[in-house]
Amino acid sequence: MHKGKFITFEGCEGVGKSTQVNMLKDYLKKTGQQAMFLREPGGNTLSEKIRKIILDPDNSEMTPLCEAMLYSAARAQLMGQVIIPALDSGKLIICDRFIDSTMAYQGFARDLGVKTISSLNETVCGDYMPDVTIFLDLPPDEAFKRKGGRDNNDRMELQSLDFHKKVYEGYKKAADMYPDRIILISPRGNKFETNTAIIRNLQARGIIE
Questions:
Q1: DSSP character for 8?
Q2: Among the listed residues 13, 33, 16, the one whose alpha carbon sits nearest the alpha carbon of residue 185
Q3: Residue 143 — pLDDT band, cuts 50, 70, 90?
Q4: Of 72, 88, 143, 208, which alpha carbon lies 20 to 30 A from 162's?
Q5: Cβ-based burial of 95 (10 A; exposed 0-12, middle 13-18, buried ≥19)
Q6: Residue 149 has pLDDT above 90, yes or no
Q7: DSSP string of 93-137, one letter each residue
């Protein structure tokens, strides 16, 4: 059992994850609570290089299994280099995307299955799973409308709407699989209401003050 606390943020493209992560960062800073903020794929030099390969629109021929393995490779480096040492030393970590993204995108939307992705996640993470996951619960059609379209430089965002609907369904199934860990929060209100809901839920679980 690690000494630190581990929070992850999940959701479809355009739901406002980055905004909410930054707002939580501001709250923790104002209240004197130290935390380490990361993103996936990425978070260190090697993992950021893998991120570029994954998201490059020119890599359209990438197979689902290759995609899943690349995400896992980036995660393995981040775990070994950053997350495990930080949690062992008692730090609070907040990560924008983590294992549930792989389950939703590759396990469900790419049809690799729960067993394959669970095996990859367990191999890479072991006992260092998130303590709590904030899932911003908004379907992709609403999320893209809020965002104002898609990022043409992001291979994952450029997938079909049907693909992103499968991703959303995958997230909902993951929430059913791990109800004690995954908290569903609707971001349909303004960003301040969403931020308040997130903070209250994390405080209720004793993750932050």
A1: E
A2: 16
A3: confident
A4: 72
A5: buried
A6: no
A7: EEEES-HHHHIIIIIIIT---HHHHHHHHHHHHTT---SEEEEE-
State both tokens at 68.
């899943």
Question: Whole-model pTM?
Answer: 0.94
Token representation of residue 29: 């800073």
Question: pLDDT, tens digit, for every residue of 31-78?
Answer: 999 999 999 999 999 999 999 999 999 999 999 999 999 999 999 999
